[in-house]
Each structure stands twice: as structure tokens, then as C-alpha cells.
Amino acid sequence: MVDLATLSLKELKQLQKDVDAAVTDFKDRERRAALAEVEAFARERGLTPADLAGISGKRTRRPAAPKYANPANPSQTWTGRGRRPLWVVSAMAEGKSLEDLAI
Predict the structure, then answer these.
(1) CA end-to-end span of the chain, whole Å?
(2) 65 contacts 103 by C-beta, under 8 angstroms
(3) Taking the CB of residue 68, how many other CB atoms lie within 10 A of it?
(4) Which of 33, 63, 67, 68 has the lowest CB atom count within 10 Å?
């Protein structure tokens, strides 16, 4: 084991660089080994890596239809998703409900 107290600052910095490089190399080896295992697993089942790549993908939401409209300006609409627009907040502060703003 290395006695860190006896090393100079230059030696400690070099040791730190060596350790960082060793950690990066280790992670790369582990990633390659895991990938090889997954590819072997897929080949055993008759799949290609391209088949696996198509399986996991981010699902996208379809655009939602507006559910609420501003009575003062019907061109301002809100789907009910996300943060409430200021006109919804204002209308609710005036005592209106979301049902009053429904399209």
C-alpha cells in the first residue's frame, strides 16, 4: 500500500491522474463486457443488435386538444396540462371554476 503522507504534491497529482485513468478504463471494460453479454443473449434468440435498438425508444405524446378557453379572448386556449396560464389563474381568482372555462 502507498503511504500518501510521504508523497509530494506532484506525485499525489500524478497518482490521482493514474487512478482516474484506471477508473475510466475499468468502466469501459465493464461496459464492453455487458454489451457483449447482451449481444450474445440476443443472438441466442435470433435477434440482432439493431432489433434491440428499435425496442427501447422514447414515447412521444400526441398533442392534446384544448379543453379550456379564455372567455375574453377565445383564441387563448389551454389543454389542462402543465402550468396554468395567467388568464386561468386570473379567472379562478375572480371566482370562476375550470368548468366555467371549459370549451
Answers:
(1) 73
(2) no
(3) 21
(4) 63
